Amino acid sequence: MSDVSYDPGWLRHRVSVEQKAATTDGAGGETITWSNLVDLWARIEPVAADEKAVAGHVTGIVTHTITLRWRDDITGAMRMTYHGRTFRILAVYDPDETQRYLVAETAEETP
After folding, report:
1. Tens-place pLDDT, residues 54-92
2. What is the pLDDT of residue 58?
3. Is the dihedral of CA 54, 58, 64, 32 positive or negative?
4. What is the pLDDT of residue 5?
5. Of the four listed, 19, 80, 82, 102, which is most buried by Cβ atoms within 10 Å?
6. Given pLDDT bands bounded at 50, 70 and 90, which one contains residue 1?
7. Distances from the Cα of 73 to the Cα of 19, 21, 84, 90, angstroms
8. What is the C-alpha separation between 35 and 69, in angstroms, rounded?
């Protein structure tokens, strides 16, 4: 049994959770748009930083753990934004199976 302890005072970042919507463009493709689902208080913690080569260029990857109060409508198909930064949700889980908090493992997207 895991003993997970969180202080609600840590939830000091106001993040927006966004969901994806795809619309057809009439030429066989689709346009992706993001719409705001909800604004929540959260804790953002950097976890790791790395770099990788993409198309001949080195790019940085920063992963974060974002903790928020329990919700059952947040999935890995969504993203979070905070002060102009975008965090792609990789996985979400309940850290102690009590439905008090939700933890999202994310990767920060860079333009």
Report:
1. 777 777 778 999 999 999 999 999 999 999 999 999 999
2. 75
3. negative
4. 67
5. 80
6. very low
7. 10, 16, 23, 15
8. 21
Residue 25 lies in a domain: yes
Residue 16 lies inside a defined structural domain of this protein: yes
Give bridge partners of residue 80 from the DSSP assignment: 17, 87
> Which position has the token pair 């974002």?
66
Q: Assess if residue 42 is contained within a domain.
A: yes
Residue length of the chain = 111
**Number of separate domains in the chain:** 1
pLDDT in tens, 26-54: 888 888 899 999 999 999 999 988 877 77
Provide the domain limits for residue 42: 10-109
> How far is 107 from 87, CA to CA, in rounded Å?
5
The overall pTM is greater than 0.70: yes
Both tokens of 69, joined, read 């109060």
**CATH number of residue 52's parent domain:** 2.40.10.270
CA distance 33 to 50: 28
Q: What are phi and psi of 9, to 5 degrees?
A: -65, -15
